[in-house]
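Render this sequence as a predicted structure.
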Amino acid sequence: MRAKYFFLIFIILISFTICKTPAQSAGLNFTLGFPMNEFRDNVKRTGFGGSFQFLFWNPTKEYPYSFGFDLGYLNYGSELRSEPFSSTIPDVTVDVNRTNNIVNFHLMAQIIPPTGRIKPYIELLLGGSYLYTETTINSWGSDQVASSNNFDDWAWSYGGGGGILFEIVPEKKFDKRLGSIYLDLKARYLYGTEAQYLKEGSVIVQRDGVTYEVSKSKTDLLTISLGVVAYFGDIFNGE
């Protein structure tokens, strides 16, 4: 649970920094995550989710690199079943949904050409991943009745990757403060330290209680992402 507060503090600090930085870029991506090595031995399913990245300044000819952060989410397992609302109200059912998730945060360094309609780049990342399993109870119409965090753990991670940006909207097409917009295709490999986690089928519900079959391994992950990246000037400062 402490990892959630860790993420909240970082988001607040990052948001403050964004408002003070004159030129930036931001991107949103749809992501597929493939467990690797020991992690793949326990988790067979491909994860899916998304990520948000932010770079604090735009690269120039003199300095063709930038630094920023990446915040991502992956779901790597889910189970859904219907249960009676209670033993005294068996004719009313609710949906019980259990999800296995990864939230990761990485500081990122990116080396990329400052100009061009097609821009290949490489990235280095350092951060960590918060792995957790959550169960929610939903009534008809998807209204959440209750939720519980069944299990969680933290793993440090580092790695690298690369990708290609394809320009889809030229610079200053809409507004002088808005730069180019690019289609972003990338792949990353993250080496994760050892962590404990649950997977599909790890939670065994019986009449006398609940049993957790906890898995433990390193948490290496290969991700492939597709999204968009927008370059800005002083748009966040209103200039």
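Summary. The chain is about 10% helix and 60% strand. The CA atoms of residues 94 and 139 lie 5 Å apart.
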